[in-house]
Amino acid sequence: MPDILVAGGGPAGAVAALILARRGYPVRLADPLTPPAPRIESLAASALPLAADLGILPVLEAACLGRAAAMELDWRDRPERRTFETDAPWLLSRAALHRGLRDAAAAAGARIVAQRVARPAPGALR
């Protein structure tokens, strides 16, 4: 069976590669291996059961910087403030999340290919 190529090793690509590798598919994860810009991602508390089912909760816990007590959003051109008494979103280091999910995919058997995905030359793909 030919390898499945997952283009992009960010959170979505790394989780896709992780799931495929766990199911026994040969998978390559193409990632430039350059750290993402310093950012904080928020993750809704309602996503935690899915993260536990996927077995990535330890990665999220390691990337967690804390929980949001409140957030100010520019939502549809009008500012909005949300406060959280329960089920506060997790604030995650994007770099730690990216690295942790990519490492989890590799541990599950995905081959990490250090390259940037670019457009193929016309006619290069069949």
What does this structure look like?
It comes from Mangrovicoccus algicola. There is one protein chain. The chain is of the alpha/beta class. It has one domain: 3-Layer(bba) Sandwich (FAD/NAD(P)-binding domain). The protein has 4 helices and 8 strands; from the N terminus they run E-H-E-E-H-H-E-E-E-E-H-E. The strands form 3 sheets. The chain has a 3-stranded parallel sheet with strand order 1-2-8, covered by helices on one side. Helix 1 links the parallel strand 1 and strand 2 (27-31). Helix 1 (11-22) runs parallel beside helix 4 and helix 3 runs antiparallel to helix 4. The chain is globular, with a radius of gyration of 17 Å. The chain starts with a strand and ends in a 12-residue tail after the last strand. The model has no long low-confidence stretch (mean pLDDT 90).
Short synopsis of the structure:
This protein is an alpha/beta fold and 126 residues long. Helix content is 32%, strand content 29%.
Biggest sheet features: 3 strands, parallel
Number of separate helices: 4
Q: The CATH topology, please?
A: FAD/NAD(P)-binding domain
Our count of domains comes out at: 1
H-E string: EHEEHHEEEEHE
Tell me roughly what share of residues is in helical segments.
Answer: 25-40%
Q: List low-confidence stretches.
A: none
Cα Rg:
17 Å
InterPro entries: FAD-bd, FAD/NAD-bd_sf
Domain FAD-binding: 3-111
Organism: Mangrovicoccus algicola
Pfam family, one: FAD_binding_3
